[in-house]
Amino acid sequence: MPGPLRIEFRRYRLPFRAAVRTAHGVWREREGLILRLTGENGAIGWGEVAPVEGFAGESVDEAEAVCAQWAGKADPAQLAALPQTLPCLRGALAAAVAEITPAAETDAAPRAVPDYLPVAALLPAGRAALAAIGPKADAGFRIFKWKVAVADPADELAMLDDLCAALPAGAKVRLDANGGWDRRWAERWLGRSADYPIDFIEQPIAPSARGAEDVLLGLANDYPTPVALDESLSGDADIIRWLDSGWKGVFVVKPALLGDPSAALGRLAAARSAVVFSSALETAVGARSGLQMAFRWPGEARALGFGVWPLFSDPRCDGPAAAPFIRWQDVAAIDPEALWNVLS
Ligand code: MG
User: Fold this and answer.
1) Which residues surround ligand 1, an ion (CB under 5 A)?
2) Is 126 helix (H, G, I), strand (E, B) or coil?
3) Catalytic residue list contains 254
4) 147: which strand partners?
5) Which of the following CATH numbers is that of domain 5-105: 2.60.120.380, 3.30.390.10, 2.40.10.10, 3.40.50.2000?
6) What is 116-334's CATH number?
7) Distance 206 CA to ligand 1 centre (A)
8) What is the DSSP code (8-state) at residue 167?
9) What's the pLDDT band for 258 if we cut at 50, 70, 90?
């Protein structure tokens, strides 16, 4: 473990280029903290605290108050003792500390990383998706993500045939209902999906729905199309709980929301779970940490949910632009110091 650390942080409030619509309303700007840790040997590590409303985790104010208490200095034992109620800060610190820990002190040998990973293309909701497929297919995307449960589910289901007919050969669609269906609609969609190249259906019913856990487990067992959990995974504890329940579907993991990413990912890897790494609409600093985890993931490489950039009004805050692939060299080339300087 490294000795005493110098800890600096900068709070940001960054407008999105275009407002983002979520289940919690319209999101116009992103707030968070960038952490800069300096070890005794002068090595610098980076982390980002970027909580998302509706998921477990502290507010930016809470994380900032803790960082301010340290007055610029802390030792790793103090950081490791942070409570579970601060998952985003714990995760950000874990990423930063790992970066300044000499390789000899980590138990695992560095994994060979792939040169690139595929990225899922985001389609607009509704019929607009049909016109969007062609250009994205021409650009090279083969995994497409379509938001459903936005309009009448019967109308959307009628569109599924046209949507799949518009796909290039070998392509697949991920349907993300964001918890917007009830059990009956989820069953109808899953029943129909067996005839189509559906990669998975994400969060068919809301985690708050009555008996949601049993319903989701039942849906995952009863249909050939895989079911993915997203909103049901609010943090590390949920991942462990679903693993313990024997979940055989997909885990959509937002690394930015994990308090102890290496433990959670270690459990998922040991269970040979299907994992899709996904953005929490963080800046390039958090994206860099999350993408590093995705590139080091030992399981099957599924298309990343990181096709979000350009995202911010100030493009200097963005990660690698949405392309059919993210290259490791582009992740390695992200310069946190440049973003740090933008925020000064
Ligand atoms: Mg989702």
Assistant:
1) 176, 202, 230
2) coil
3) yes
4) 176
5) 3.30.390.10
6) 3.20.20.120
7) 11
8) S
9) very high
